[in-house]
Amino acid sequence: MTRLALLIALLASLLLTGCSESEPETLAAAVPIEDGDSCHVCGMLINEHPGPKGEAFLGSQGEALKFCSTLDLFTFLKQPENETRLSHAYVHDVAAAPWATPDDEAFVRASEAVYVVGHDRRGSMGHTLASFAEQADAETFREAHGGELVSFDEIDLDLLGRLGRGELGGDSGAGLSGMQGHE
Questions:
Q1: Mutual angle of helices 70-77 and 157-164, in 10-degree steps
Q2: What pLDDT, in 10s, does the model give residues 93-135?
Q3: 3-state secondary structure of 36
Q4: Which neighbouring-strand residues pair with 66?
Q5: Is there a contact between 54 and 67 (Cβ–Cβ < 8 Å)?
Q6: CA neighbor of 109 nearest in space, from 126, 129, 132, 75
Q7: Could you please report the per-residue DSSP string of 88-146?
Q8: I need a surface site. Which of 35, 57, 124, 159 has the fewest CB within 10 A?
Q9: CA-derived radius of gyration, the chain
Q10: pLDDT over 60 at 13, yes or no
Q11: Residues 168, 142: Cα–Cα separation, whole Å
Q12: Interatomic CA distance for residues 31 and 16, integer angstroms
């Protein structure tokens, strides 16, 4: 009988161990953008351009893919073949440093940031998304530079295409009101 009791206790212990919550996945931290780093999308030298930049980590990949602008970052991330591989991404908090020189100590998770599109500031190749850790900072920026607030989930290829074509800029006269799903 003791063998049976011991076997039952052992099986119960194994079952309970299997049901316990696993450790949360540790995400790779953002890494500094170094002189000589080039954009994963366009190949431009990242530090030669103003505005917020981004980094992405795909699946179990250990190295960050770096981007010269938030527009290039999202253009890459929103491609169907990349969306499913994304582990996480980071963007600069524009409120933490001057537009021309984003602070690598102020990277925030891209999925948690608030964005302003259609403003009058330019990034590496024209219009880009201004990224903020706090909504209040995004609203202050919008008041000074125009544009509309959007969340990570509202950024799609249609929005990025319009932004890239200059249809959503402080000087274009176009707004988001003509976009389905962004009113």
A1: 140
A2: 999 999 999 999 999 999 999 999 999 999 987 889 999 999 9
A3: coil
A4: 55
A5: yes
A6: 132
A7: EEEEE-GGGS-TTS--GGGEEEGGG-EEEES-S--BTTB---EEESSHHHHHHHHHHH-
A8: 35
A9: 21
A10: no
A11: 13
A12: 39
Positive/negative CA dihedral, 151, 62, 75, 97: positive
Cross-strand bridge partners of residue 131:
115
Q: Could you tell me if residue 181 is left (phi over 0), alpha (psi between -120 and 50 degrees) or otherwise beta?
A: left
Length of the chain measured in residues: 183
Spacing of C-alpha 106 from chain mean position: 13
Name 175's Cβ contacts closer than 8 Å, sequence gap at least 6.
Answer: 118, 148, 168
pLDDT at residue 107 in the model: 97
In the structure encoding, which two tokens stand for residue 80, read together?
A: 């169907």
DSSP state of 29: P
Higher pLDDT, 30 or 26: 30
pLDDT band for position 54 (cuts 50, 70, 90): very high
